[in-house]
Amino acid sequence: MSLAGKTAVVTGSNSGIGLGVARSLAEAGARVVLNSFTDRDEDHAIAAKMASETGAEVLYIQADMSKSDQCRALVEKAGACDILVNNAGIQHVAPIDGFPPEKWDAIIAINMSSAFHTTAAALPMMRKAGWGRVINIASAHGLTASPYKSAYVAAKHGVVGLTKVTALETAEEPITANAICPGYVLTPLVEAQIPDTMKEYNMSREEVVRDVLLTRQPSKEFATVEQMGGTAVFLCSAAADQITGTTISIDGGWTAL
After folding, report:
1. What's the first-to-final CA gap in the chain, in angstroms?
2. Which of the following is catalytic: 60, 148, 152, 201?
3. Residue 103 to residues 86, 106, 110, Cα–Cα distance (Å)
4. Where are the alpha helices (DSSP H) in 36-142?
5. Distance separating alpha carbons of residues 111 and 163, to the nearest angstrom
6. What is the DSSP secondary-structure string of 2-14?
């Protein structure tokens, strides 16, 4: 399918899942806005490289997703927003009674509240254009839970709820809202953790992947950023016109347990 003429804003997209989704949208012909909280030469170089390799227009806009005004300004600076992918997120692991309040506030702001602010800014643009797609990158932790991840799990459950409300408020319009719920995805950040974990547990790479990282993922295989991107492109297709207000799990069977 072609997304030519559409503008996609992808938050938290200078690496990992966000970058993979952005690339798939660019390959489908969309004009893509990359984003993160930094404003380095290498951030803009990532956009230039993607543009060169895909032939799409790709630009980078700095915005701190912990700041409500910057979330909304990102969408405004993009100039258009037919496809909004809320992907920005951070993590911290600690028991509830030892969870630093500032970490809780940051995770709720970046992982959940940012999606509200960008959506609020994007919906008027989608309505003016007569078409729109809101795609929230939630998590398997938006549907289930793990200990010591109170803020992350709460935020991702909140994102799923926000997705449903967005879908209901746009149900009679040519706008859809859905949440993709990944399990463990092989990103550069995850890949970088494997050697240290191998040393810590005196395990082979295969053992670390299967028995440590993917202990809750029944397929015992990572999802890929390309699969995330392909799912996002599908949700932008006419085949997905009546898919709204739901979650799509890409978790190797995790949430089937």
Report:
1. 34
2. 152
3. 20, 5, 11
4. 41-54, 68-78, 101-107, 114-129
5. 13
6. --TT-EEEESS-S
Amino acid letter for position 126: M
Q: Which residue has the tokens 């404003």?
A: 39
Output Rg (C-alpha) for the chain, integer angstroms.
Answer: 18
- Binned at pLDDT 50, 70 and 90, residue 7 comes out as very high
For residue 247, list its beta bridge partners: 179
Helix (H, G, I), strand (E, B) or coil at 60: strand
Q: How far apart are CA 234 and CA 227, in angstroms?
A: 10
| pLDDT given at position 137 | 98
pTM: 0.97
**Following CA atoms 129, 71, 162, 253 in sequence, which dihedral angle do they give, to the nearest 10 degrees?**
100
How sure is the predictor about 64, in pLDDT bands with cuts at 50, 70 and 90? very high
Tokens for 197, please give them. 């974990």
Mean of per-residue pLDDT scores for the chain? 98
Per-residue pLDDT, 1: 82
Domains of the chain, start order? 7-185+223-256 (3.40.50.720), 186-221 (no CATH)
User: How many whole angstroms separate alpha carbon 77 and alpha carbon 81?
Assistant: 10
Instruction: Sheet containing 83-86: give its strands across.
Output: 58-62, 31-36, 7-10, 83-86, 132-137, 175-182, 247-250
Give catalytic status of residue 148 as yes or no. no
**In degrees rounded to 5, what are phi and psi of residue 184?**
-80, 125
